[in-house]
Amino acid sequence: MIESNESINSIDTHKILATIPIMPYQNIACLGAEEGLFPILFGKFVFDGKVIAYESDKKQINITKNLLKKINLGNVELNQMPGQKKLDNILVDGIFITKWDSYKKLITEFENNLNKNTWVSILSEKDQSSEFIKIFKNLKKDSEIYINQKYKLYNYRINK
Question: Which of 18, 56, 95, 141 is deepest in the core (most CB within 10 A)?
Answer without folding.
Answer: 95
